[in-house]
Amino acid sequence: MKPIQVGLLGIGTVGSGTFNVLQRNQEEIQRRAGRGIEITMVADLDVARAQSIVGPDVKVVNDARQVIANPEIDIVIELIGGYGIAKALVLEAIAAGKHVVTANKALLAVHGTEIFAAASAKGVMVAFEAAVAGGIPIIKALREGLTANRIQWIAGIINGTTNFILSEMRDKGLDFDVVLKEAQRLGYAEADPTFDIEGVDAAHKATLMSAIAFGIPVQFDKAYVEGITKLGAADIRYAEQLGYRIKLLGITKRTAHGVELRVHPSLVPAKRLIANVEGAMNAVVVHGDAVGTTLYYGKGAGSEPTASAVIADLVDITRLHTADPLNRVPHLAFQPDAMSDVAVLPMSEVVTSYYLRLRVADEAGVLAQVTGLLAGAGVSIDAVLQREADEVGGEGATSTDLIILTHDTREGTMNDVIAQMQGLPSVLAPITRIRKEELN
Ligand code: HSE
User: Fold this and answer.
1) Counting atoms of ligand 1 from 1, which one is nearest the CA of 131?
2) pLDDT tens readout for residues 318-340
3) What percent of the chain has pLDDT over 70?
């Protein structure tokens, strides 16, 4: 049978990896897919560089619309990124009856509802395994492997840049700014790292996992997003002394009142496997009612790891494109007419536990005042750590750090009590609050 023909929009790191892996493993991929899969056309602004990657047999153009307009092309891979031209091209490809494979988490997290609706109306597939955790087949796992389960929660290290920075901060005892510069020098962080370090990239991915896990629309605008820029080496050290590591987690959870969807730094018990995921690696923990806790680990970025996910989608589409659209796996795991409208909870309604660090005057009664406010708000304390003032501020220091771990508390309650504690004259600096996830 004639190979299925693929058009590639954008041949950067992931695109060239996709081309190379498809070529290298074509015989095995064909045995799996039941049919050859060939990239026959590429659009890239740098035509000469693109042509040097794919060789003379592949047609290279600088206008993506020529790929979309080509009637021979069955599948379009979008690897341009961003919301602008990528959105227009994906919608045009769908309108032209092409199946689409994309790694564009930002596009789907923000415009997924429109894009999936357009694809369903046209009877084409939009596949996006590469959009979440790179080479880890987490979309496949959530959408198919765990389909028997009522998924209860997901917690993932889904941004390699920030995990690399946090690992270096812990290993070397350095502050965020120093490690970010080093990460940029080594190519682990982009020149403009905003989306990574502010948690936005992780929130895009968490949004997609949340939709698939709970059968709700993609709702990036409802996600709570907090990055790692304010974390200090001191907090990482104190967390370690208390038996925890600090990780940037993307969390989504089913509760009696709605769905939690949040990205923020979290203390995780050092004994959990996910707490030991270091460097640029990714990992996702999924808890289902039948299966219990499962863990998926691997490279979340990079040329061939991401290509691995893109090609898995190409194989899926090749196997299924002749199937009745109603018999395919739904884009968001649940049938479009069976989606739930359960609300994403505001952060003030989230219930979790907390690490608090207070710089306090080292004098009588301070601990009692602080714990008194917590008791008054009904917040139960799990552990308290106070260092000697000399150890924190040097000989003769008159202030010290007071670290408190709490039991589960509603975030709104914690906000109120932090504001009250901040008003105490003996609290000398802004209070640091980091959420804590036991993941058990
Ligand atoms: N920038 C991402 C990361 C990879 O650092 O994990 C692509 O989403």
Assistant:
1) 8
2) 999 999 999 999 999 999 999 99
3) 100
Q: pTM of the prediction?
A: 0.96
Angstrom distances, CA of residue 64 to CA of 75, 102, 393: 13, 14, 60
Which residue has its alpha carbon closest to ligand 1 atom 2?
Answer: 159
If you measure from the C-alpha of residue 98 to the centroid of ligand 1, how many angstroms do you get, rounded to a whole number? 27
Query: Which pLDDT score, from 0 to 100, does residue 392 have?
Result: 77
**Which ligand 1 atom is the nearest neighbour of the CA of 201?**
8
CA of 373 from ligand 1 middle (Å) equals 41
Residue 388: band (very low, low, confident or very high) from pLDDT cuts 50, 70, 90: confident
Q: What are 198-219's pLDDT values in tens digits?
A: 999 999 999 999 999 999 999 9
Pocket of ligand 1 (CB under 6 A): 159-161, 196, 201, 300-301
Among the options 87, 98, 105, 205, which is catalytic? 205
**What pLDDT does residue 124 have?**
98
The helix/strand/coil state of 295 is strand
CA-nearest of 27, 4, 154 to 77 is 4
133 Cα: distance to centroid of ligand 1 (angstroms): 8
Alpha-carbon distance values, 340 to 15, 216, 308, 336, 343 (Å): 35, 5, 31, 10, 9
- Give the atom of ligand 1 at the shortest distance from the alpha carbon of 301: 4
Active site residue 436: no
Rounded-to-integer distance, Cα 114 and Cα 121, Å: 11
Domains and CATH numbers, the chain: 4-135+303-338 (3.40.50.720), 138-299 (3.30.360.10), 351-436 (3.30.70.260)
Beta bridge partners of 351: 410
pLDDT exceeds cutoff 80 at 389: no
Ligand 1 centre and the CA of 177: distance in Å?
19
From residue 378, give the alpha-carbon distance in Å to each of 56, 408, 414: 71, 10, 10
